[in-house]
Each structure stands twice: as C-alpha cells, then as structure tokens.
Amino acid sequence: MPADFNGYWKMISNDNFEEYLKALDVNVAVRKIANLLKPDKEILQNGDHMIIKTLSTFRNYIMEFDVGKEFEEDLAGVDDRKCM
C-alpha cells in the first residue's frame, strides 16, 4: 500500500513551471495563464485507488486512477493532450 496522501494541499510555489510546460509543448497562452494560478489539490485515497482534484479559480480538474496500473489521462479543455 502506498503512503497516505489523503488531505487538502495548498500550493506555495511553482518554480520553473513555465519551462516545464514549454518542454511539454503547451501553447504560450495556456502557459501564461497556468503560471499565474496557484491551484489547491484535494487527494482522496482508498488503498491503491486515488482521486486527485485540482481546484483553481480558472478550472477544476479531477484525475482518478489506481496506483501501478496504466491509465489514460484526458486533458481536454486544459491543453487538449491525452497522456498515458
């Protein structure tokens, strides 16, 4: 069983975030907006099942997965990528 990450997490800093987004080929407008945000994370964990909610004034996003199992993350509306 993984470590317990349950809780509500507040972002304090985002060092080099724009460079990270640039390396992912995220367009410049989305990078500028994303760099201004300080989203909170709410993590709900039940054993190996994780739900991670990203909460911001711009957009909320929910990712749900099981640790150790490949899954597809659909970022439609964020930067329109699909990731494994």
UniProtKB/TrEMBL annotation:
It comes from the Eukaryota. GO terms for molecular function: lipid binding. InterPro entries: Calycin, Fatty_acid-bd, ILBP, Lipocln_cytosolic_FA-bd_dom. The keyword Transport applies. It holds the Pfam family Lipocalin. Keywords: Transport. PROSITE patterns: FABP. Residues 7-24 form the Cytosolic fatty-acid binding proteins domain. Belongs to the calycin superfamily. Fatty-acid binding protein (FABP) family. This is Retinol binding protein 1. It comes from Anser cygnoides (Swan goose).
